[in-house]
Specification:
The chain has 372 residues and is α/β, with parallel strands linked by helices. It contains twelve helices and 18 strands.
Length: 372
């Protein structure tokens, strides 16, 4: 992709926006970088873009010439606003920062989406195929791909959020997983279907040589996978990769791994393991390395992380569980029969019904804090 001399507008100057602007500058583009935050509120990395040749428009977007750009690159936290619509009406291509980065990558691409479990599966998968060469693991997980596209990767594994998936017109994964879709971010989307469609955009450009991984029996995820032409593998009970007796069985490759080797608690982590195995096989992994990673994975911080045991009471940090589905999975995945849930945060307009049922089954008490 040749950006030399092109007029590029980068909107939203968090970490991924700064990295996108840096990438465009390094390829010879003329960059306008803009953010609603004032100059006094942005990071030193944003201000450093000026010294590299970018024009900064801060404290809003006044003076940005949307219709004269060759391309607009949008950071994932930026909602639709008048400037983006103006650019689109003028025929300017408006893409996400992940789409931009992927246009510079030639390695086979594995993408993991879904409401819950993305980070766990992305990290676990990266370990399962770690023997295949130089493997990038990042995206929404924390490390933007844009800052690493110059490196010679053998595989690229990306966690993708619905925000990042909104504008990915040419994204073409070798393998893509959609782990689940439950109510989330309905304060941003015009209903559940719009949220699901954003998640499913990753499948659109996939062909018969590619693999789509979705939960067995999940009609919503299956519908999204059908938007492309990839071969579908299912995971979970009744799926191609499934728990069966005392093992996880991959019926496609003939792999079998003991359930006792999974160190993470909860049925949701059995599903995460099944999805990771399905993706590893699709990306060329081998049973020996998959088995090693399956048994050695220690989980991620702030995701059902046991932080203390005091007077016989176990304390778990699940602060990354930021929606109802994640909290339900955490409660039902506990080894202990009852739990006190401390919950708060911002209301995303989804139903709390499933959480009420989980608390009836497993809750001892509920402590509510925060805005919601």
């Amino acid at each position: 992709m040749n950006l030399a001399g092109k007029q590029i507008i980068v909107v939203g100057l968090g970490r991924s926006g700064v990295d996108a602007a840096d990438l465009c500058l390094s390829r010879g583009a003329r960059v306008t970088a803009t953010d609603r935050l004032a100059r006094s509120a942005v990071s030193a990395d944003v201000l450093a873009l000026e010294g590299k040749g970018a024009r900064l428009v801060l404290g809003g977007h006044e003076g940005v010439l949307w219709g004269e750009a060759d391309m607009v690159v949008v950071s994932p936290g930026v909602p639709v606003f008048a400037g983006l619509l103006e650019a689109e009406r003028a025929g300017v291509e408006v893409i996400g920062e992940l789409e931009l980065a992927c246009r510079f990558v030639r390695a086979p691409l594995g993408v993991i989406g879904g409401t819950n479990g993305k980070s766990t599966v992305t990290t676990w998968l990266g370990q399962m195929i770690g023997d295949l060469g130089k493997v990038f693991v990042g995206g929404n997980l924390g490390t933007p791909l844009a800052s690493h596209v110059h490196e010679p990767w053998d595989r690229v594994i990306l966690e993708i959020s619905s925000f990042q998936a909104e504008r990915v017109p040419t994204l073409h994964p070798r393998a893509a997983a959609l782990l689940n879709i439950t109510d989330d971010h309905l304060d941003r989307y015009d209903g559940f279907d719009a949220y699901a469609d954003a998640k499913g955009n990753v499948f659109v450009n996939m062909g018969p040589e590619d693999v789509a991984v979705v939960p067995a029996g999940d009609a919503v995820c299956a519908k999204q996978a059908s938007r492309g032409r990839a071969r579908v593998l299912t995971f979970g009970p009744g799926g191609d990769v499934r728990p069966e007796g005392d093992a996880i069985v991959d019926s496609v490759r003939g792999w079998r791994f003991p359930l006792s080797s999974i160190p993470l608690p909860g049925e949701h982590n059995v599903l995460n393991a099944c999805a990771s195995i399905a993706m590893a096989g699709a990306l060329g992994g081998n049973a020996e390395q998959v088995g090693r990673a399956l048994s050695s994975f220690e989980g991620l911080h702030h995701r059902m992380q046991l932080v203390a045991e005091i007077d016989g009471v176990s304390f778990y940090d699940d602060s990354k569980g930021t929606n109802v589905g994640a909290s339900v999975a955490a409660l039902r995945g506990l080894r202990q029969p009852r739990a006190v849930l401390i919950a708060g945060g911002r209301d995303k307009q989804g139903s709390y019904g499933p959480l009420v049922e989980a608390l009836r089954e497993r809750g001892r008490a509920l402590v509510v804090i925060g805005e919601a």
